[in-house]
Amino acid sequence: MLPALFSKVPPMTYSIELLSESNAHQWEEFNDQSREGTLFHSLKWKRLLEDVLHLKLRYYLILNGRNVVGISPWIEESILNFRGLVSIQHFETNSIVLDEAFNTDHFNKILSLFARKYSFLHFNTYNPALPGKNGFAHVPQGDTSHMVVDLRENPPEAIWAGLSKNTRYDIRVFENDGFEVRVISQPGDLDDFYRYYVRNMMHIHGEVLPLAFFEKLWDLCPPGELRGTTLTRDDVFVGGSLAILDPARKIYYGDYLAINRDLPNKYTPTYYIMWESINWAWSNGYERVSFGRQNPDPENPRFRNKVKFGAEQIPIHSRRVLLSKPILMAYKVKKMLSD
């Protein structure tokens, strides 16, 4: 018999573990240290989604032996008799976060673990190699992009220099006409913002979040992690922004906009709000400004505006994975009938 020193070390095995009180600290520690971790992956954000939107969340840790090598937040969803996991749409970034040292060739082993309980799974990832490591049948779900301004490479003066003369005029007109940025200091001041937020989301055919979402967000975020502003002159509301701040990662998430779409054509409040957000973030030591998820369509004016103000596309690859044979057959039948 070989001495213990030379005995064969058993290979580590992958496993998944549902989030619980006993492993919550592991989730938070991994998210905090991961390069792709975000506040949207935090348990604070999970409480917001559960308390206000009442989503059926399933958060899984991915382990190699006893070491956490990934975290994956999902919504549990049923289609007919098939149960699956889908990405949380209220994430501006990727849904599955893996350790930088994770061997992507092992990704199919992770999916096999989910296949023991679920029939399908939908994931988003920044990693372009990951979808190709999937050995199950899968369907592309329409890749999107995370639009981010990197202020380290594109500071405000460089952005301003790249703007057209007309766009600069569209920004200056608000100050010339006496409009001012006012800070929202408490949840009770959200009424005007929320009213025009709803109108804006209806205009762009987006999902309207309830007022309780923003009120709860205000309660959960300590001072310095939320910035609300409005652009007004006397009783005239032009627009507003509610931004989530991540000081540790130096990211400014300018996600929620309120736009008065009944203004004269001479006003383009989106320009001023984006420009003011960039300058505030720069002045307060933030390195990146997120303008959220966007389909990379050059014909879409919202996409063009974000690019105009220095945002670059970080591709998000999206796949629906068919984990069981019955759902694969059901998908083939549905596709055959629809063709």
Task: Output the keywords.
339 residues; 10 helices; 30% strand; disordered N terminus
Question: In summary, what is this structure?
Answer:
This protein has 339 residues and is an alpha+beta fold. The chain has 10 helices and 14 strands. It has helices spanning 24-33, 43-53, 107-115, 156-162, 165-176, 191-203, 211-220, 269-283, 301-308, 325-338; strands at 14-18, 57-64, 67-79, 82-86, 97-98, 120-125, 137-140, 144-150, 180-184, 226-233, 236-246, 251-259, 288-294, 312-322.
List the topology elements:
Layout lengths: L13 E5 L5 H10 L9 H11 L3 E8 L2 E13 L2 E5 L10 E2 L8 H9 L4 E6 L11 E4 L3 E7 L5 H7 L2 H12 L3 E5 L6 H13 L7 H10 L5 E8 L2 E11 L4 E9 L9 H15 L4 E7 L6 H8 L3 E11 L2 H14 L1
Structural summary, described in words:
By secondary structure, the chain is α+β, with helices and mostly antiparallel strands. It has helices spanning 24-33, 43-53, 107-115, 156-162, 165-176, 191-203, 211-220, 269-283, 301-308, 325-338, and strands spanning 14-18, 57-64, 67-79, 82-86, 97-98, 120-125, 137-140, 144-150, 180-184, 226-233, 236-246, 251-259, 288-294, 312-322. Strands 1, 2, 3, 4, 5, 6, 7, 8, 9, 10, 11, 12, 13 and 14 form a 14-stranded mixed β-sheet that branches. The longest helix is centred in the last third of the chain and has 15 residues, at 269-283. 30% of the residues are buried.
